[in-house]
Amino acid sequence: MRNLFAFLFRYRGMLVFALLEVASLYLLIRNSTYQRAAFFNSANAYVGQVLDTRTQIYDYFRLVSINQGLVQENAALRQQLYLADVGRREARRLPVQQDSASQARLAGLAYPDSLLLGLRPLPTRNPDYPLIPARVLNNTLRRVDNYLTLNVGTRQGLRPGMGVLAAAGIVGRVKVVSENYATVTSLLHSKTFISAKILRDNTFGSIRWLGDDPTHALLDNIPRQNKLVRGDTIVTSGYNAVFPEGVLVGTIDGFVKEPDKNFWTVRVRLAVNFANLTYVYVVNPRPKAERDTLELKAGMKPEGEEQP
Q: Looking at residue 82, what DSSP letter applies?
């Protein structure tokens, strides 16, 4: 202890100088919008490089499990695209325009093929929502406000506010972007709200995290007169144009009626396993800018947006 005090006394001038430098930098970053943005962008780039190196080393020892996961994901996607029974492929939203020859050839089918309407190939993804693949470099789970770090940035076309998906469902939204890295506000964040709906009856609500269990969230604003069923599917509503409509969020795990409220308290089991995220997809919503401008002119507040 005597040696410690002697060291502090000997270098007191240098230590006080360093402390004042740190305090001045903190005040500068906190009170200047430009300096704060520059600091976080630079810090995001440096931290991303360190995490990228760590992930490359870690991935080398996980190649077998990663490949198995990718094979399973590809198999599930192919199963959705190429169902064995074409009679079960029902086009619920896409219009069917056929000539007389096409109608004759489809006469034997119970429902038109949603992937081959009019016996002509259609794109299997929404061109208004192109996907940018990304690798998760870092992911937090146990905090009140959780974030992810991705290995893509402005060079790959990312911008703040873009949605992030996994193969199983919703992950979060891009918050800060550097040239090659991005920080994502996770769905497990106290200020993240996702506009969602119950698939069975199209009742709209808002998904928010409870702040404790990374496997569950809360679905708000479901009226008490609605009939709920455990296991009901919750999907995105498409109201805020960040995520395509119909992306899986989770399933209803439980619900109760609060005596002093007009809404159900609905507990949702999230579809994404945040403890095992490896690859995600960043959604690039092309019509969002035009839609946001129109809604702002009309004085509308987007539903399901992350609050500032």
A: S
Q: Is the dihedral of CA 196, 278, 37, 128 positive or negative?
A: negative
Note if the pTM is more than 0.90: no
Q: Tell which residue, 140, 139, 99, 138, has the closest CA to residue 119.
A: 99
Q: Specify the 3-state DSSP secondary structure of 131.
A: strand
Secondary structure (DSSP) of 232-270 = -EEEE--SSSSS-TT-EEEEEEEEEE-TT-SEEEEEEEE
**Phi first, then psi: what are they for 247, rounded to 5°?**
-75, 135
Spatial CB neighbours of 302, under 8 Å, sequence gap ≥ 6: 239, 240, 241, 292, 295
Structure tokens at 101: 């020859």
Radius of gyration of the chain (CA): 24
Question: In whole angstroms, what is the distance from residue 101 CA to residue 301 CA?
Answer: 48
Query: Using one digit for the tens of pLDDT, what is the confidence trace for 95-111?
Result: 444 444 444 444 443 33
**Contact (CB, 8 A) for 109 and 87:** yes
What are the residues whose beta carbons fall under 8 Å from the beta carbon of 242, sequence distance 6 or more?
Answer: 161, 162, 163, 173, 283, 285, 288, 304, 305
Give the whole-angstrom CA distance, residue 250 versus residue 197.
11
| Distance in angstroms (rounded) separating the CA atoms of residues 77 and 62 | 23
247 contacts 235 by C-beta, under 8 angstroms:
yes
